[in-house]
Amino acid sequence: MIDALHIASLLVHCRPELLDAAKRNIALLPGTELHQESAAGKLVVVLEAEHEREVLDTISHIQQIPGVLNAALIYHELLSLEGESE
């Protein structure tokens, strides 16, 4: 049973020539959604996870994808089972 849900958004900066490959690799990661992109190689990625460690592990994994220059956490929210944010 899920006690809480972590929602996080990231700004991911990629080399523009490797943007498509980076997007495909990010989309393969569980709990990730791609929301916006720019031709300059920037992506907005939203993560959903049950545990904070999963969010941190996913960020670390994204930073290791070829063509990714940086992945920065922009927003994090913890939703409790009752739906209230903490």
Describe the structure.
Chaperone for NapA, the catalytic subunit of the periplasmic nitrate reductase. It binds directly and specifically to the twin-arginine signal peptide of NapA, preventing premature interaction with the Tat translocase and premature export. The chain has helices at about 20-25, 50-65; strands spanning about 5-15, 30-35, 40-50, 70-80. With about 90 residues, it is α+β, with helices and mostly antiparallel strands. The chain has a single domain (about 5-80), classed as Alpha-Beta Plaits. It is elongated. The mean pLDDT is about 95.
Query: Biggest sheet, in brief?
Result: 4 strands, antiparallel
Which overall shape is indicated by the principal axes computed on the Cα atoms?
A: elongated
Number of helices: 2
**Strand sequence of the main sheet, in spatial order?**
2-3-1-4
Strand content: 35-45%
Number of domains: 1
Mean pLDDT: 93
The H-and-E topology, N to C, reads as EHEEHE
Low-confidence stretches: none
* Percent helix: 10-25%
GO cellular component, one term: cytoplasm
Subunit structure: Interacts with the cytoplasmic NapA precursor.
Family: Belongs to the NapD family.
Main location: cytoplasm
Question: Can you lay out the helices and strands and say which pair or pack?
Answer:
Elements: E1 4-14, H1 19-27, E2 32-37, E3 42-49, H2 52-63, E4 68-80
Antiparallel strand pairs: 1-3, 1-4, 2-3
GO molecular function: signal sequence binding
Subunit structure: Interacts with the cytoplasmic NapA precursor.
Protein name: Chaperone NapD
